[in-house]
Amino acid sequence: MKTIFCSLLTLFLAVLSGCSGPQGPEVAPVSGKVTLDGLPLNGALVTFYPQDGRPSMGTTDSSGSYALNYTRDQPGAIVGDHIVRITTGLVSGEETQKVKETVPAKYNSQSELTASVSKDNNTLNFDLKK
Amino acid sequence: MKRNAFTLIELLVVIAIIATLVAILLPAVQQAREAARRSTCKNNLKQIGLALHNYHDTFNTMPPGTMRTSHLAWSCLILPNLEQGSLYDAIAATGAFNAQAADNTPSWDAITDLTTTGNRLASSVIPSYICPSDGGKNVNDRLRAEIPSGSGTYYSFGKSNYVGSFSALYNNTDPVATNAGSDRPTVFYENSNVKFADFTDGLSNSFLVTEREERIGSGPAGSLWIGYHSNPGAAIGLTIEEFQVRFRVERVSNDTDYIINGDSVYNPSSKHKGGAQFLMGDGAVRFVGENINLRQYAAIGTINGSEVIGEF
Questions:
Q1: Domain with A30 in it: what CATH number?
Q2: Given pLDDT bands bounded at 50, 70 and 90, which one contains residue B149?
Q3: Do B259 and A13 touch (CB under 8 A)?
Q4: Contact B176/A49, CB-based, under 8 Å?
Q5: What is the count of structural domains for chain A?
């Protein structure tokens, strides 16, 4: 009797374990440091645009460090190749550009920067040159 | 040995199984409730779609997104088509629809019969404009107005969770770029009169209306069904007050401010998990996931961009 109960319970739990799974595209954590001519770049928006899907973004702090967010509750970026844009010419919402862009256009509007996000933790540092 | 009672072990196992079952079931019940709320929200959008089509049948044009002088929104003008004819007539009786730039007639928030006295018509609650997932009150406290300005007295007006499409990013040459191209007006802009014939992309391939949640504290501030006003306080800047009732589908600059369920006050957002619902021009309601490719999203947003749109 006991054996039947125990085996039933085990089977039940084994079936249960199949009930959850990952949802949406595969996302991996991304963080790193941005420097401009060797100096940490403060307050820059780092955006990763995947080939297909939602972009991820993060803002650098005074030490130039950033961490990407995919959605509000999910950190990271979609696994795969990205075009990276780094800009300091941030406009808040509907306003027109007020803050001066200090990063050359080849890193933002005409970006030549790319990055590859792998399945594990990613540390991607960008050393920008004027 | 014949026994007619359970042993302790058997009892414990049974209790454990029941406990596990309950543990699985409870979240499932929550999900079922959310699914029901989402389909109510979908029905709201469907009704709005039917009302817009009926409006178009009557006037051969879509309602204006916002009216230049009275600041009333499209959602106020289609009230008769949502079986709110008596409310519409009451608003008309206050003279809100007579506002004209020429004689400087005031905007709706300056008409006291709508805002502060009597029936306070602008605070009326219209269930068709409220997504049940949004929770909170049926009046919008984030977009409350200080009347008169500087008095410290605030009034909240009837909430809407549905905002009209204002512009979309057009870029037919670069399939990847999201910060190049131009912003094209779509359906609901100031004094607009877009006709179905203007949807050269096809009604079923263009957004009309989407959701805007009222997030507590900061971020998306919901909407008002009657229109936008000029005292929205900290929730939304004065120069962009029209965004109380409209949204952009991507933009040539700042594109990351316009993603679905982002943190800005200009984007589509909902409390439904993983995306937001969109009313298409043909009256269909589609759930668009927040993972959608930005270019494709912008391509659906335009009404006359001739983009090739894949499955979404």
A1: 2.60.40.1120
A2: confident
A3: no
A4: yes
A5: 1
